[in-house]
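New to this. Please check this protein:
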Amino acid sequence: MTRLLLFCLTCAVAAAAEDPAKLGQECQKKKRKACESLVALSRTSLDSDRLVAVIGKLDNQAALGALAREALDSSVRAAAVSRLSDQSLLAEISRIEGDAEVLLAVLARLSDQAAIYDVTLGTPNQDVLAAAVERLSDQSLLATFAKAKGNRDLRRLAASKIRDQAALEDVAWNAGEPGARVAAVDLLTDQAVLASIALDNSMDTVRRAAAEALHDQASLAKVAKSQADPLISGVAAAKLTDQAILADVARSAQEWRVRATAVAKLTDRAVLSAVAAEDRIENVRSAAVRRLEELRKTP
């Protein structure tokens, strides 16, 4: 009878020792053995719901870090991460974890910008990459991410978060995805830089975006008068409003369609008459004649 009582008592103690709730309570009091037992249990237990419930009441950072690193079930690791505030522990976990659920939990708590960027280098998971980009604010790191090739929507998203003009210019010239370059161009304000991009960028969609972003008349004239890309020159010419600049473009632009566009917006009759008489392209001369006739009909 005594042996039976002792056996039952031993069983009860063992059961209590393996009870996650009791272990959690003792671990919360920073009792080392209880924390070690809880972590050991998490390595083999499939009862994730009970462990997650225990972790929801646990603030012991060292124990949470161990659970986040060592628990068998990813939902348990994620629950532990969601209670972590220690940035060095979070950064460490971000480097060794491969599960998307856990990485998303890490990113929600991680504030170190370099560590957040490093997450993008170690996972192909689109949800994790998107979460990392959303958490990034460092302009240099955003530019670095935006310039890489692949994941075009995320590269564009990263570029759209940049406000530093030097970083935007870097992305506009060097990004591997056209969408990222265009997103950068849309946020650039330096008219000279935009004119240079409109003239010399290697991607036609980017050149067009830069031309459309121009409003400075001198910069527009520079692009309009170039012969690098007739379509881009035409976009720039269509935005010209200054009559002196239009007169210059009508007489000296390399592309005849650009000269014709400028002619259609001119009001200087003397310049129009000269173009009608002297331009080497019949279409431009005809455009000048039509414009003169329009002006004669104007009261």
Observations:
- Confidence is low (pLDDT under 50) at residues 1-17.
- Residues 53-110 form one domain.
- Residues 117 and 273 are 62 Å apart (CA to CA).
